[in-house]
């Protein structure tokens, strides 16, 4: 086969024959590959071009190029040029090439003894090519006594490049000099090497260090063909370790990709600790299936043990604003009477979800779990979505109690304030005006950044919400308000700077901004809005963490009302408009079960003057008292309705034995938060099941009602996983694996009562909120300055 290098001239075609046209195409392909390789050698392309060289194959009769091939510069093998990447993977990475080593050892890892042995002519080593093998009848280089014929390997001393050979003196960095001098023979190497030690450079510059490390590694392997054994683990230890590794990968649910299991560094880590390499196909296949079946069996067993349950449905309220193609995850879990939760299934949705579809999904889930015993499901708690899905299901099945998530109720209250309180609109407009001016006016921006660095050690633009004030979500507005308040000192210093005075003489807007920022009323309104939103967000976060039961809903809204009244007094805000906003949101979220659970839960019994512990009917409005009667009669059989009401009257007048009431209401300090909490939350239900047995009809309602959760917030999925789902949404296999991953991860998180996402944990880690975080930030600052 005739082959030419890149310097061979291609004959010019004399006429446009088919063969000549084909030759042009071949030559164009060759020139393209040469261009790609040239860029790659300069560090702007794939690594394998350093070892693969394009060549032209000519027709022996016509002399025209007929094909392009790739030649391996390490072993001279020739391959098709149709897919260089695949050629590199199969020939170089998979070990087909005898002279390629994909894991060069750093120069710094060579010991002095290795360096002496490597450089000495007497070292018993070998060049990596098999044709350099020689036989010798002597035992060493010194001409000793003849011995038996043995096979030995000789390595010539490394060539040292003398700068005098070049017309221009070549500079070299101390790193190259030190690294290269590591392989200079300490003895027996001849005077030439010692003489040029201080002037040593490598002809390829710093880029030669990797190649030199590969050479040393090859020599080392040939000298010591048997690698030192790593840690030895038994089969039981290996299996247990891989099981823990698999659990970690699955429970991270997308944060750790399956492909990362085959990352060279991770494979090196496994080898270092004595574990075999793992296959991503096995982890995404057999192991995943086995773990899913194990987790599902455990989940099913816990559901069978419970007499009834509540469905928790979170995710209908999409965070993607309903954009087409954006995947959202709806989680369906079961809240059990003993206070635990069990994951059931995940539903992947995209864009707007009709209320009817949600209704069908919820009912199908109930049917799938309960079979013929539908009343095993006592209700649903779901985040708020438009439509009447929850109400329709409750009307069709009288035993269901379907609630709206209180976390969403409090979060929606922020939107209500932003839309209905003039204060929010005034503050938002002022902030937008200020932020736009500071960010866009270069002289002011530069001055602002100067004082940011002076006061806070950092500088940046003030964040502006996309879409302006008309956005439904107040979150971006709140971020802008926070930015202004946190930069208040720097903004005040900007007004005192000479550069701002010059700008204010030229622009009326600058004078308007200055007048606004010097007005204490502006800052008072800004702080008022920030304080109210922070108050509501804090209560919503508490709801998310504490996961209150339905009986706590009325006390929560009462607590909110009291706190907002204090806020009005502090910032001199009229109470009327604020109270009306809260009242409207309360009515939208209110359910009669709030009042009924509040009355039936022994946790809220109050002691009267006679020493009895009685239900707090005096805390209810007349309408709410009627709601209690209506709900109880709906939840029992028609023939038991009058009995249940009679028992309710008895409960109202007699209440609970003081000793049992005090046992239920016993509190203890939480070692984590330091707050006083109920010692045994399950006592409320257990009292009805074991002590208040005379209330046969009312007791059935109580035990099924007071354990219900008031929020649907539960398992949170990682954004990286949702992006992966979106990429595989049309693949049946991909969705099946996604379902199994979510199930395993959610089951683990619910079991640990871990309701935060990895993103939130990372945000907490990197937020400078305490001394530990300050130390962490100092480490980053020190590292960045090195």
Automatic annotation (TrEMBL):
Q: Which Pfam families match?
A: DUF7963
Q: Which superkingdom is the protein from?
A: Eukaryota
Source organism per entry reads Escallonia herrerae
PANTHER family per UniProt: F16P17.2 PROTEIN, OSJNBA0013A04.12 PROTEIN
Disordered: where is this region? 85-150
Q: Species lineage, top-down?
A: Eukaryota, Viridiplantae, Streptophyta, Embryophyta, Tracheophyta
Provide the DUF7963 domain boundaries.
Answer: 17-101
* Compositional bias of kind Low complexity: 111-125
Q: What is this protein called?
A: DUF7963 domain-containing protein
In what ranges is there compositional bias, type Polar residues? 98-110
Which InterPro entries does this UniProt record tie to the protein?
A: DUF7963, RNaseH-like_sf
Q: Where is the composition biased (Basic residues)?
A: 126-136
Q: Which residues cross the membrane?
A: none
């Amino acid at each position: 086969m005739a082959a030419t290098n890149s310097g061979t001239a291609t004959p010019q075609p004399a006429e446009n024959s088919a063969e000549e046209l084909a030759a042009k195409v071949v030559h164009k392909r060759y020139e393209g590959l040469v261009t790609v390789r040239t860029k790659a050698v300069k560090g702007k392309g794939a690594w394998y071009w350093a070892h693969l060289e394009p060549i032209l194959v000519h027709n022996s009769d016509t002399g025209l190029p007929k094909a392009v091939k790739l030649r391996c510069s390490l072993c001279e093998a020739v391959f098709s040029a149709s897919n260089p990447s695949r050629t590199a993977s199969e020939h170089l990475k998979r070990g087909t090439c005898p002279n390629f080593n994909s894991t060069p050892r750093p120069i710094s890892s060579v010991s002095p003894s290795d360096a002496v042995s490597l450089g000495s002519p007497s070292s018993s080593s070998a060049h990596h090519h098999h044709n350099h093998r020689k036989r010798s009848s002597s035992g060493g280089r010194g001409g000793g006594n003849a011995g038996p014929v043995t096979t030995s390997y000789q390595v010539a001393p490394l060539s040292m490049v003398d700068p005098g050979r070049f017309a221009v003196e070549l500079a070299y960095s101390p790193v190259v000099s030190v690294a290269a001098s590591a392989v200079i023979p300490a003895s027996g190497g001849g005077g030439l090497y010692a003489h040029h030690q201080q002037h040593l450079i490598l002809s390829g510059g710093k880029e030669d260090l990797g190649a030199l490390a590969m050479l040393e590694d090859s020599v080392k392997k040939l000298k010591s063909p048997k690698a030192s054994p790593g840690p030895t683990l038994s089969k039981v230890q290996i299996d247990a370790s891989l099981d823990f590794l698999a659990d970690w990968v699955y429970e991270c649910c997308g944060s750790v990709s399956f492909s990362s299991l085959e990352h060279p560094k991770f494979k090196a880590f496994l080898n270092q600790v004595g574990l075999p390499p793992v296959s991503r196909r096995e982890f995404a296949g057999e192991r995943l299936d086995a773990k899913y079946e194990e987790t599902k069996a455990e989940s099913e067993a816990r559901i069978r043990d419970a007499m009834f349950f509540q469905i928790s449905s979170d995710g209908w309220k999409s965070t993607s604003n309903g954009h087409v193609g954006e995947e959202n995850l709806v989680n369906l879990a079961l809240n059990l009477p003993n206070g635990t939760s069990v994951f059931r299934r995940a539903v992947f949705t995209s864009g707007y979800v009709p209320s009817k579809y949600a209704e069908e999904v919820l009912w199908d889930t109930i049917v799938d779990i309960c079979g013929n015993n539908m009343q095993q499901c006592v209700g649903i708690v779901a985040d708020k979505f438009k439509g009447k899905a929850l109400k329709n299901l409750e009307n069709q099945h009288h035993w269901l109690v379907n609630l709206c998530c209180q976390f969403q109720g409090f979060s929606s209250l922020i939107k209500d304030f932003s839309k209905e309180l003039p204060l929010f609109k005034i503050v938002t407009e002022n902030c937008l005006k200020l932020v736009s001016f500071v960010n866009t006016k270069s002289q002011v921006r530069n001055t602002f950044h100067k004082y940011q660095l002076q006061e806070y050690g950092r500088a940046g633009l003030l964040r502006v919400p996309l879409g302006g004030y008309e956005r439904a979500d107040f979150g971006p507005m709140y971020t802008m308000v926070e930015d202004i308040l946190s930069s208040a000192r720097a903004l005040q210093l900007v007004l005192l700077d000479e550069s701002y005075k010059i700008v204010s003489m030229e622009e009326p807007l600058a004078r308007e901004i200055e007048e606004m920022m010097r007005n204490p009323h502006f800052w008072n309104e800004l702080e008022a809005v920030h304080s109210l939103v922070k108050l509501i967000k804090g209560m919503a976060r508490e709801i998310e963490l504490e996961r209150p039961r339905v009986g706590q809903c009325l006390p929560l809204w009462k607590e909110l009302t009291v706190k907002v009244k204090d806020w009005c007094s502090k910032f001199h805000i009229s109470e009327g408009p604020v109270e009306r906003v809260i009242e409207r949101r309360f009515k939208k979220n209110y359910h009669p079960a709030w009042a009924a659970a509040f009355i039936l839960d022994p946790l809220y019994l109050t002691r009267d003057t006679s020493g009895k512990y009685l239900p707090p009917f005096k805390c209810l409005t007349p309408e709410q008292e009627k709601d209690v009667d209506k709900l109880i009669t709906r939840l029992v059989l028609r023939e038991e309705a009058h009995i249940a009401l009679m028992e309710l009257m008895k409960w109202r007048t007699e209440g609970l034995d003081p000793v049992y009431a005090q046992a239920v209401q016993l509190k203890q300090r939480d070692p984590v938060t330091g707050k006083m909490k109920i010692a045994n939350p399950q006592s409320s239900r257990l009292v009805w099941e074991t002590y208040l047995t005379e209330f046969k009809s009312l007791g059935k309602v109580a035990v099924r009602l007071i354990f219900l959760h008031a929020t649907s917030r539960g398992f949170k999925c990682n954004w990286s996983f949702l992006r992966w789902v979106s990429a595989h949404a049309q693949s049946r296999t991909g969705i099946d694996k996604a379902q199994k991953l979510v199930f395993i991860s959610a089951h683990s998180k619910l079991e640990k009562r871990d309701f935060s996402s990895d993103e939130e944990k990372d945000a907490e880690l990197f937020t400078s909120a305490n001394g530990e975080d300050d130390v962490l930030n100092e480490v980053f600052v020190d590292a960045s300055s090195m």
